[in-house]
Amino acid sequence: MNKFSRIGFILTAAGSAVGLGNIWRFPYITGEYGGGAFILVYLLAILFIGLTVFLAEAVIGQNGQADVSTSFVTLSKTKNKNWKYAGFMVATGLIILSFYSVVLGWILDYMIKSFVFLPTEAKIAGENFENLISNDISSLLLYHTIIAGTVVFIVLKGIKEGIEKINLILMPLLGLILFGLLIYAFTLDSFSQAVSFMFSPDFSKIDSNALLAALGQAFFTLSLGVGTILTYSASLPKNANIVKSSFIVASVDTMIALVAGLIIFTFLFTAGAKSAAGPGLVFISLPVIFSSWGILGNIIAVSFFLALVFAGITSAVSMIEPSLRFFIERFKISRVKATILCGTTFYILGIIALLSMSKSFGEVLTFFGKNAFDIMDFASSSIMMPIAAIMICIFLGYFVEKKTLEEKFTKHTSYTIFSIWYFLIRYIVPVAIIILFLNKLGAI
Ligand code: PFF
Ligand code: NA
């Protein structure tokens, strides 16, 4: 049977969740918003909002045992066919994958170069990064092709032999590398400084921007609003305990983000560097610090970027699966055909994204003052993901028989947990997402 084993599902869903969002994005936004208080808000957002939507996707998928569109229709009270339009969300994963693959390409470049070369000064590191993304088109194309090829190769083999297998291998390796780096960080004097930066909240630093950033990060980090968790859950046996699995996956994702933060902030503070370095933190600040550690620095740098590659690949694989399943089941085409179709789409979009950051093509690929890369990022995370998440909440909260949902939950957990979840999905989460959405569109 093409179904996940219990541990297979947990590692695969965790593989989707744990990605660049944890190791690259979480530390730099935590740095920008000042540490402890931001993390506290983030943890609340994961617990009350992220986990609620995660459970929602898992319920729809496990119940439907099909692609996003079909699963929505099956679960709706009236079997209203119009719910098939929820299937639009499968496109979001392809768009995210386009630029995610490009960023993974940068990381691959950093990993390879770190064997022999690390910049000794921030100025040089900055120029190197700039040079890679704006001039070195041939390398970027090569790396994007390698990443896209790897993703296609894995998903072609299907759920069991491809996706589950790669996660069963890469996730433990990722855990091992991060554990090693954490132990090393622990031996450094700045470890305690990193701990207090991350865990002593200073609430004067929290404003509405920080709240919204925490909420947005909670969604992105748990892979929500893309149909990924829904589609993976559709390959779960009907009696598997999704409530427990969802808790485990959200906890693993959170743990890894916190560990990545501890490692990175310890390294930064050791060198007396600033915590608020923005997106360049991993590509500019860290390499300079590694270079001051001699050969050990090279080893740590390579391990670090390798961890990012592993984390990123398992997430990338999960972004394409909703659209594959959609085409396979709705249009009755083979997995190979669907993979060629979706693979070509994101590969080409990725080329457009990477060219749009270059000196030579940047101008023609800039629209309304944003380059194609930023447009894809904005359209997916700020528009399509929130719309899908709102739709999921409204659907379960108002268009599905309460009894059906209650049964799904109480099979595995208490009625209290169900009532809390039901309350959150009906009233709290949709409102929170609508606020986030309007804010991102610049309305409030
Ligand atoms: N959760 C991934 C991360 O934190 O990097 C990103 C992601 C994966 C977003 C899969 C969306 C998705 F469908
Ligand atoms: Na994540």
TrEMBL record:
Membrane association type: Multi-pass membrane protein
> Transmembrane ranges?
35-56, 85-108, 137-156, 168-188, 208-235, 247-273, 293-317, 338-358, 378-400, 420-438
Q: What is its main location?
A: membrane
Q: Which UniProt keywords apply?
A: Membrane, Symport, Transmembrane, Transmembrane helix, Transport
Gene Ontology molecular function: any one = symporter activity
- What does UniProt give as GO cellular component? membrane
The UniProt record lists the keyword Transport? yes
Q: Where in the cell is it found?
A: Membrane
Protein family: Belongs to the sodium:neurotransmitter symporter (SNF) (TC 2.A.22) family.
The protein's name in its UniProt record: Transporter
Source species of the chain: Arcobacter arenosus
